[in-house]
Design a protein that fits this description.
7-stranded mixed sheet, 14 helices, globular, alpha/beta, 21 strands, 21% strand, Aldehyde Dehydrogenase, Chain A, domain 1, 5-stranded parallel sheet, Aldehyde Dehydrogenase, Chain A, domain 2, 2 domains
């Protein structure tokens, strides 16, 4: 197994090369160590990467589906061989606990088999008999796909775009997040070892300027997971270019309703998992907790606050920790600033979120009471839970839907008629009953309406945006 860490910053046409753009580095938010140093790709190198992908597409796009599948299955095995190195890269870059990072790599491996099945189910070849002969449906790749990776799942989320894109016959240019650049070279190394032809996947490192160069290049698709602000900018930039497929997943301001008939202690456990797993750095984390007024709601809240106060916090290699740091000291300061803005608007800190060290990313879990404050409909990537109280389930649903986002939501309740009521009215693409909001299956679509995306969900449905359908009426003779 080769180690690409000193081979260069960019991977283009199957070769490593040094970036020719601005230098940058990444420090570990748990201890301040420099964990990655390199240079961004220059505009010329971004153009070279797109040109390489375009050239590779001419062959890869016509390669038999079964042959593409074999290469991706070998890639899954190469990922498995690199599990510890990849988990370590993820953890040191963004602070994710090592046990979670290992699970992330496992998910990357599993993505290949799931994507193969999704490709066959949703974008395969089908034929129907007709009076004149038969009707054929097949799917064709778009061409060159630009993939922008986020920092919170720097391996899994871009992998979830790249694998189905390659299976469909596309080629890719991947821009890793500058906040978590270290796992991308290991992914490229795995692709090369699996025998993926040169140019089918290319890596460019860098920040906003590199992303702008890639966005403006001759691409056929843009696959993005990240913030609403950036997603909207991409959408505006590509206005007037309908030929470029655009798949956006932009997060959420997710509600969790806990209602009467639930077990208060079990409900508190689900809320803790929903709000604070991965230190709140999942787009499916619960940001808003909606409780009934009265003693039951008080009991649930008391139990949540007690648990949140006692959550263990430690560095990525602390096996006993529940939360690691946020991705950077800057992110930690932003989380505190968001909380302060809520408080200035009338919220009350039941359990303040506090930054432990101004030079690192550690923060404590926070809970704020929003009873006397207007809602602030923003996604804050951190462990802060906003609590609302409702008179009845109708008001709870109204509060849950009071967001421009629509990614995830949840209900904790043992009354199935209440679940039916909530399920039919709550606007969320991922909606769980008696499960944490962060629970999502790769065998289901991942995405939601509103500001959470543009109705092109990922996971199992990624096959939909990686190929376009071609419908044919086939008569065996020109005589009809």
């Amino acid at each position: 197994m080769t180690d690409p860490s000193h081979s260069g910053d960019c991977f283009i046409t199957g070769e490593w090369m040094s970036g020719e753009g601005a230098p940058f580095q990444k420090t570990c938010p748990a201890n301040g160590d420099v964990v990655w140093t390199g240079r961004a790709a220059s505009g010329a190198q971004v153009g070279q990467a797109v040109k390489a992908a375009r050239a590779a597409f001419e062959t890869w796009g016509r390669t038999e589906q079964v042959a593409r599948q074999v290469v991706l299955e070998r890639y899954a095995e190469e990922l498995r061989l690199r599990k510890e190195a990849m988990a370590l890269a993820i953890s040191r870059d963004m602070g994710k606990l090592l046990k979670e990072a290992r699970t992330e790599v496992d998910t990357m491996v599993a993505k290949v088999a799931v994507s193969i099945k999704a490709q066959a189910d949703r974008a395969g070849e089908h034929s129907l008999p007709a009076d004149f002969g038969h009707l054929d449906l097949t799917h064709r790749p778009h061409g060159v796909m630009a993939v922008f990776g986020p920092y919170n799942f720097p391996g899994h989320l871009p992998n979830g775009h790249i694998v189905p894109a390659l299976l469909a016959g596309n080629t890719c240019v991947f821009k890793a997040s500058e906040l978590a650049p270290s796992v991308a070279p290991l992914m490229m190394d795995a692709f090369r070892a699996a025998g993926l032809p040169p140019g089918c996947v290319n890596l460019v490192q860098g920040g906003r300027e590199t992303g702008g160069d890639l966005l403006a290049a001759d691409i056929n698709g843009l696959l993005f997971t990240g913030s609403e602000h950036t997603g909207r900018m991409f959408h505006r930039f590509l206005a007037g270019r309908p030929e470029v497929i655009l798949a956006l997943e932009m997060g959420g301001n997710n509600p969790l309703i806990v209602w009467d008939s639930a077990d208060a202690e079990a409900a508190a456990d689900i809320a803790i998992q929903s709000a604070y797993l991965t230190t709140g750095q999942r787009c499916s984390c619960a940001r808003r907790l909606i409780l009934p007024k009265g003693r039951f709601g008080d009991q649930v809240l008391e139990s949540i606050v007690d648990r949140a106060r006692r959550l263990s916090i430690g560095p990525w290699n602390d096996d006993t920790a529940f939360m690691g740091p946020l991705v950077s000291a800057h992110a930690a300061a932003q989380a505190v600033a968001f909380q302060n803005k809520l408080i200035a608007g009338g919220a009350r800190a039941i359990l303040p979120l506090e930054q432990r060290d101004k030079n690192l990313g550690f923060v404590s879990a926070g809970v704020v009471d929003m009873s006397d404050a207007p809602p602030m409909d923003e996604e804050m990537f951190g462990p802060l839970l906003q609590v609302y109280r409702a008179d009845d389930i109708d008001q709870a649903i109204t509060l849950a839907n009071a967001t421009r986002f629509g990614l995830a939501g949840g209900l904790v309740c043992d009354d199935l008629p209440t679940w039916d009521l909530v399920r039919n009215r709550l606007r969320a693409g991922i909606l769980n009953l008696n499960r944490p909001t962060v629970g999502a299956s790769g065998q289901m679509p991942f995405g939601g309406p509103g500001a959470s995306g543009n109705f092109r969900p990922g996971a199992y449905y990624a096959a939909d945006y990686c190929a376009w359908p071609q419908a044919s009426q086939v008569a065996p003779s020109s005589l009809g």
